[in-house]
Amino acid sequence: MTTSGVVPQARFSAQARLRALQSDIMELILERELEAGDPLPTESELSVALGVGRNTLRESLKVLQALGVIEIRHGFGMFVAPSNFDALADGLTFRGRLSLRHQGLEALQLVDVRQALESGLIGSSMDVMTKEQLATIEESVKQMEELAAAGENFVAADAEFHRRLFEPLNNELLINLMGVFWKVYRKIHVEIGPGNEDLAKTAAMHRDIYAAVAAGDKAAAAELLNRHFDGIRRRISEAVGE
What we know:
- The chain is mainly α.
- The protein is 74% helix and 3% strand.
- It has helices at residues 2-31, 43-50, 54-66, 86-99, 105-128, 131-149, 155-166, 172-192, 199-214, 218-239, and strands at 70-73, 77-80.
- Strands 1-2 form a two-stranded antiparallel ribbon.
- Strand 1 and strand 2 form a beta hairpin.
- Helix 5 runs antiparallel to helix 10 (218-239), helix 6 (131-149) runs antiparallel to helix 9 (199-214) and helix 9 packs antiparallel against helix 10.
- The radius of gyration is 23 Å and the shape is elongated.
- Residues 1-7 have low confidence and may be disordered.
């Protein structure tokens, strides 16, 4: 009985030490003012600087590589990784799809976050939107309408519509997060199936959003975006049988 109680505690302690080491490596990157693409110290140098063994260090480096913090290029060394949201997208996709086997809670929460971002920022985007940017948004709407008329799904065109809505903000983090949400949504969309989706109605909703943006009606644009996400939320709830 004593042994079974000690092992989990030892395992927890080892995991805590590894997490602490990962934090130390990230702090070292920041303290040395390394930028994306810059080389990290060698394993030997890191071992000395951090006071840890090579094997323990390698375990933490592998985790940081999986998180997109560093890149390990065999034969060349280790480097600070460029902006990469793949690990975040993969983790959220897994959690969202897994939740569909139960109540779909995580999938619905992802919709909530995206809804809050888009409805909350649309007014700011409209403030700085140019006529040329507005025209590209309408191009996306026309593409959705054409695909809907042909009975074809337009998930990619839908994603581009939303990206173009917020492109005027010139916020790379926001665009990357939206890319993550769309990657997750595409996987969830495949998981739950097309259902009774009315393509023409969905395209028309995007036309209405565009019209509100073109008219400079911030309140209407935000409200229409909220309704759009209510529809996505309803599809997920129906798929999990709520």
